[in-house]
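Retro notes (design track)

What went well: tokenization of the new backbones is finally stable.
What didn't: we kept losing track of which sequence belonged to which structure.
Fix going forward: every design gets posted as structure first, then sequence, in one message. First example under the new rule, 501 residues:
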């Protein structure tokens, strides 16, 4: 991922809105974009967060005042500096190619220099846990040097991400016996323990946790704050954000993914779209009695919401829950209701997937229970695909639809058959339903369901649409990709009109 200056400023504002304590804005000495970030961020108002600039200790053999990276910290205008220094003798000798004594001097002189200029100083002891494992005395000597130089925080870094929780536990206990400076934890996720190690560190007395939203970071990522923050607040009784702000967590998580143009994983703990999704009929039956039967926290506490899916694994409970959620009056013991469950399972067997297309499911249920009226009806549709001599391919759709007692006949071209269909249908309906202009297709996915049939295989088309207030997904299934696309397109427009009218 690569963030523009504008992206970084937007995310900084969103993190402050969430209520985090410190935002590490970058390394002002490493590139012009980060330097410009610190210049621009001075004009922003922050209610909760302090902006920190990041850098290494001074270079070997160079005085602090002449080190350009340290000078850039001062010039950035921040009140907090985060300085990392080597805590593993192997790195000092092999990566820095200097002496162990010189490394201690680098730590001491850099921290003292910045403290003399009234900066709050966070010292990141890089590779601390690996260093402690291989040379315990030297790793602790680095921490003592930082503390004596005046560091306000000493952060123990699992830079390679290979430490396991029980080893981290023993190490932090030993450190606490010798270091009085407030401790922090900086964990990477290379062995899948980033969150667990961060929580274990807090349990052992660390009071600052460094991490990233959604765990974004190099290699396997950093510790995921979207799992750490609610675990600390809801399970360990530790206040991390201003009162009431935990409900903003899901919003911030999705916002950062969107800005970074990264996928937001459905199974992400606490904030994922599927974190509180329920599918099995036995689960949903219990949920109707008490949500605690299959949820470890209340989803609303982290700004998420419960989802009950209707699929081939559904029982009557799923349908009743979904109907109640949609405000549809259903008799639990009605023969029609049980027949409807069988129909849904048969449709799923044919390839429909309602758990990923809840807008189509709602339309299906409303039609089944007589709570839906068609907004339009198709009279005729013709699609022409033409390949010309210059290899240009054009698509044109001609459509005739009926709305009430009026017939609308239009034609439109598009970048392919589906786009032409979409353009023609919109053109026909916009005169009656001008709000259609506010809706756009945001994603289009095709899945071949029985590949052994080759080009005659049945396909499932999932369309995600969005208007000014919501995103929603619809589905179509057919051996004809145009027909499957048409089904999903029609559902998307009908669903939007249903919500508006």
């Amino acid at each position: 991922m690569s963030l523009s200056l504008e992206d970084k400023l937007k995310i900084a504002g969103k993190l402050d809105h969430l209520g985090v304590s410190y935002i590490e804005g970058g390394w002002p000495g490493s590139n012009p974009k980060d330097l410009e970030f610190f210049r621009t961020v001075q004009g922003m108002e922050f209610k909760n967060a302090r902006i920190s600039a990041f850098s290494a200790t001074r270079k070997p053999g160079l005085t602090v005042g002449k080190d350009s990276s340290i000078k850039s910290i001062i010039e950035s205008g921040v009140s907090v500096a985060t300085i990392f220094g080597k805590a593993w003798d192997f790195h000092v000798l092999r990566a820095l190619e200097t002496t162990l004594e010189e490394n201690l001097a680098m730590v001491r002189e850099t921290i003292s220099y910045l403290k003399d200029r009234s900066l709050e100083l966070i010292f990141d002891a890089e590779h601390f846990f690996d260093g402690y494992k291989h040379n315990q005395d030297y790793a602790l000597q680095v921490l003592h040097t930082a503390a004596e130089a005046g560091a306000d925080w000493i952060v123990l870094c699992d830079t390679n991400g290979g430490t396991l929780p029980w080893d981290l536990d023993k190490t932090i206990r030993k450190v606490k016996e010798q270091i009085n400076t407030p401790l922090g934890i900086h964990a990477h996720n290379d062995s899948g323990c980033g969150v667990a190690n961060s929580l274990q560190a807090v349990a052992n007395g660390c009071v600052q946790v460094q991490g990233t939203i959604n765990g974004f970071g190099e290699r396997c990522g950093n510790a995921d704050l979207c799992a750490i923050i609610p675990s600390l607040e809801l399970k360990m009784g530790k206040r991390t954000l201003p009162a009431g702000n935990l409900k903003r967590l899901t919003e911030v998580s999705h916002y950062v993914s969107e800005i970074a143009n990264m996928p937001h994983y459905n199974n992400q703990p606490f904030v994922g779209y599927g974190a509180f999704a329920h599918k099995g009929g036995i689960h949903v039956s219990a949920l109707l009695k008490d949500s605690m039967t299959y949820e470890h926290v209340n989803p609303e506490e982290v700004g998420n919401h419960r989802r009950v899916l209707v699929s081939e694994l559904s029982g009557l409970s799923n349908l009743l829950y979904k109907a109640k959620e949609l405000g549809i009056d259903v008799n639990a013991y009605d023969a029609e209701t049980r027949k409807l469950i069988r129909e849904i399972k048969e449709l799923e067997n044919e390839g429909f997937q309602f758990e990923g297309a809840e807008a189509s499911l709602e339309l299906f249920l409303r039609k089944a229970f007589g709570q839906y009226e068609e907004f339009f009806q198709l009279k005729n549709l013709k699609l022409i695909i033409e390949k010309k001599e210059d290899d240009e391919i054009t698509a044109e759709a001609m459509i005739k639809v009926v709305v009430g007692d009026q017939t609308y006949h239009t034609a439109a071209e598009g970048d392919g058959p589906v786009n032409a269909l979409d353009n023609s249908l919109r053109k026909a309906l916009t005169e009656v339903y001008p709000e259609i202009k506010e809706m756009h297709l945001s994603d289009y996915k095709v899945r071949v369901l029985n590949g052994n049939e080759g080009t005659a295989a049945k396909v499932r088309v999932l369309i995600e649409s969005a208007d000014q207030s919501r995103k929603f997904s619809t589905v179509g299934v057919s051996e004809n990709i145009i027909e499957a696309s048409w089904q999903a397109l029609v559902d998307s427009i009908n669903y939007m009109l249903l919500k508006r009218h």
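Added context from the reviewer: The two ends are 41 Å apart (CA to CA).
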